[in-house]
């Protein structure tokens, strides 16, 4: 009988472990299943809390009537709205491209009404202002007499942020927030002695490795902090790693990232290869993985703070 009871308990335990229910602690709290390492490399901020991306709400400039309902036709403009802390004022995203994941649930839950919104969607949105770009101007035209402001894509990300702040009646707040960010980059560089660190930026695609140029979003932020790049990586343009320049990827610290699942699969092969492991930074366990979409696919003040915080937490770290 004891053997039968033991077998029954074993079957019950195996059954409980094999269903699709989430793992929990004894008190019922969910167990974190976040992946924190890839190919023996630590992931920076693997458990990032996206609910905290957007900054504190800002007030309109003195004497300016505040906007209450905002529509954007290009999701990239949402970063500035998020940084200004007024994401709840966005009533619709008129686009087919998704809202960047790093902006968190506040903006990912905004209704997406497509690049050709119908009359009902336009009437429901009823925006005070439509933020658009030259590429999405045709979508903005669907909103008729609503105030429209076109943000030029040629501006650098800080100028683009200020343009959005101006359009939303928050010029003073925009200037203040940029000043705070710039001051923090300088402070971070001094505190971490960034000028004496050489950092490499390597991006893995499905079949190649790229050295990220200084003009990339991450490259600009490292420069603002004062982090140095190896001599071979001081070009504004990104370039492909080949057999001849393979060791150009080496530095005091290497930040690696992966473009999608194929990029990660290829990256894991390289990161575990003898040739990679023979370089200095891998030998010293000075390789860290970062979010490719955030470091390179984004561009705005909210994203800049996230990248800056990644660097704060990892510049002196190990894999």
Please, could you describe this protein's structure?
This protein is α/β, with parallel strands linked by helices and 319 residues long. It folds into two domains: 70-169, Nitrogenase molybdenum iron protein domain (Rossmann fold); 192-315, Nitrogenase molybdenum iron protein domain (Rossmann fold, 3-Layer(aba) Sandwich). The chain has helices at 2-18, 78-83, 105-108, 119-125, 137-140, 157-167, 171-191, 217-225, 260-271, 274-277, 280-283, 292-296, 301-314, and strands spanning 37-38, 41-43, 70-72, 90-93, 129-132, 147-150, 199-204, 209-211, 239-240, 253-258, 287-289. Strands 1-2-11-10-7-8-9 form a seven-stranded mixed sheet, covered by helices on one side. Helix 6 runs antiparallel to helix 7, helix 7 (171-191) packs parallel to helix 13 and helix 8 (217-225) crosses helix 13 (301-314). The longest helix is centred in the middle third of the chain and has 21 residues, at 171-191. The radius of gyration is 23 Å and the shape is elongated. The model is unreliable at 1-19 (pLDDT under 50). Residues 69-319 form the Fe/B12 periplasmic-binding domain. Belongs to the bacterial solute-binding protein 8 family. Residues 1-16 form the signal peptide. It comes from Gordonia insulae. Keywords: Lipoprotein, Signal, Transport.
